[in-house]
Amino acid sequence: MLRKIIFMLFSLACFITAGVCLIVDSAINRQVSWSIFPLMSIAFGFLVLSPLLLKKHGLLISMGAASLLAAPYLYLMNLITPGGDWFRPVGLPCAVIGIIALWVFYCLFRFVKINLWYQLAIDFFLSLVIVSPAIDYFISRYLNAPTDWLSLIIHVFAGITASILFAVMGYAKNHKNKAARGNQQ
After folding, report:
1. 179 domain-assigned
2. Which of 36, 129, 158, 177 is the most exposed place for a label (fewest CB within 10 A)?
């Protein structure tokens, strides 16, 4: 029952937000112009999050929906965005990187039976040392901008530092648990 109430509230919030965007856009511009962007985003969010809110084990369905809908969503946004084609050089590679990262993180938490601190160490390493620089690469290449080495160094340093800290915390937790089991015997 609680899931249905939360879903109804979420649906109502999406509907109201979409309605406000349409009303404001048409009142100001006398046509639908910028509101198409939030409307598409609200629809995307609704389709992705609804299974998570409706089903007890809806996480996989939501992740599958995000995986299947991300590229078409970005492609449609590309079609209605003034300017050049950004979908192939930026949108698609970043969507693929994000989807792969999403599933890797899910598999780590679901199937790899290691200490939560070790999982966090791996996640921070992947996010800040691999995923973020890869996305930055495609954006810089599309913008024809030089690599922001300072930003890259900060991401990598933060990722490695956080990974080491989480790994040390995981090691300490394992060491403490082993000592506690040793004292019980």
Report:
1. yes
2. 177
